[in-house]
Amino acid sequence: MFRRKGFFEPLAAALTIAAAAFCATPRAQAQLPQPLVNESTLKKVSDHVYVLMGFPNIGIVVGSRATLVIDTGLGARNGATVVRVAQSLSKSPILYLTTTHFHPEHASGLQAFPPSTVLIRNTVQQEELEKLGPEMTDRFRNMSAQNKDLLQDVQLRPPDILFDRELNLDLGGVTARLFWLGASHTKGDELIFIAEDSVLLPGDIVQDKLIPNLSNDDASAKSWIADLDQLAPLQPKLIVPDHGALGDASLIAKERAFLVDLLDSALALKAQGKSADDAAQTIAAQFKTKYPDWAGNAVASDVHRIYTGPQ
Ligand SMILES: [Zn+2]
Hints:
By secondary structure, the protein is α/β, with parallel strands linked by helices.
């Protein structure tokens, strides 16, 4: 299966299974319980950045002027845990919140945050959340009794700040760069770079051996690869993916190589006139052998999207 070294080894393995079952393959109707955000997983990863390891990994960036939380956890109960931890780390009452994409484990815990929290999101993600959020939340509700409970009363509100491409947030002694590069796992994936600490929080765009998932019709392998090319020059010392283990800049090239292989394989079979179903089956089997330690099973659905979507 898969093995991981380093950060929270047993926990990372357990959470990777959850990530594989849920975020990496949202089509799967798996019945595994959702891990809850847990304060005991908090880890300081750099001078200003803390991470709650879980489903998802949640970043907290602490400056002298304000604190930025990245993702809410699934539903209000997890959101409340995140708020508690963020407030215990904060040096100021000013709290910013942003979300890496609209999927429920990243965005549905908003209501637990104090009303004074400044919510920031890119425009494309906001549009996508309004269009696809309710259906995706229902899908997550139907995955397990625990999910249903966590998502019973989701209350969202419009962001206080919307940005198109990039926003630099001065937190006091540390600046967070929030940016959108283009479609990848979803259309509105947002990334956060903390230059002072050389830490990148890329959402689901860069992960360690989790099969990338083109999660809806607007997701794009081609654009995802272009996004990774723009990320590479950042050479982050540390990457904090939304799911699974943390890693270094080498994760970017690893993710890119997988996506290029997937895209090329699908387009080659399409050019040969193979049906999407045949191609999905063939490539899924090939990739199981080629990438035995990558978790998740999104390859077949990715091939379908490459056949029909914007690639
Ligand atoms: Zn996702």
